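Suppose you are handed a protein chain with no further information: no name, no annotation, nothing but its sequence. What can you learn? This example shows the usual starting point.
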Amino acid sequence: MGLAIALLTVSDTRTLVDDRSGDALQQRLEANGHRLVERLIKPDNRYQIRAELSRWIADPGVQVVITTGGTGLTGRDGTPEAVVPLLDKTIEGFGELFRVLSFETIGTSTLQSRCLAGVANGTVIFVLPGSLDAVETAWDRLISAQLNGATRPCNLVQLLPRLLE
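A reasonable first move is to predict its three-dimensional structure. Written in C-alpha cells, the prediction is:
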C-alpha cells in the first residue's frame, strides 16, 4: 500500500539542488511505491517548521511527514522543539532504536541525535538528523519496514485507519 508522504528539510544553507538527504529520502520512498505529496526546505526556525507541519497534519491527504535536519544541540537546532508540541502521541522506541543502530557507524556521537517519531491528527511523523548516513539508516533499517503493510507482526500502515479513534 503506497502512502502519501511529505518531506521537510530543515536547513539554513541547503537548497533543493544540494539536499542529498532529501534526495535520498525521496528516491527511497518512491522506490517503495509511496507518493511524494510535497517537498520543502525551511530554515532552522521553529515557527516556520511548525507552520508547515501543522498544514500537513491538518491535510487528510498527507499520511506521513518526514523531516531531516535541526536535531542537533546547537543554538539553531530546534526541530524537536517545533514538532513535539504538535504530537498527540510519541513513538519513543523510534529514537531509541535509531540511536542504537547509529551507534554501529558513528559511535558515541549518536548521543547528539535528538531524532524522534510520533503521531498527530492521524499523521505519522518522523524527525531525522540531517546527515545522509542518518536518513539512510533511518529509512533502510526502520521506516521502510514500518511503512510496509506486509511487515509482521505489526506495522504503522495497519494503525493508520485507527489513529483517530
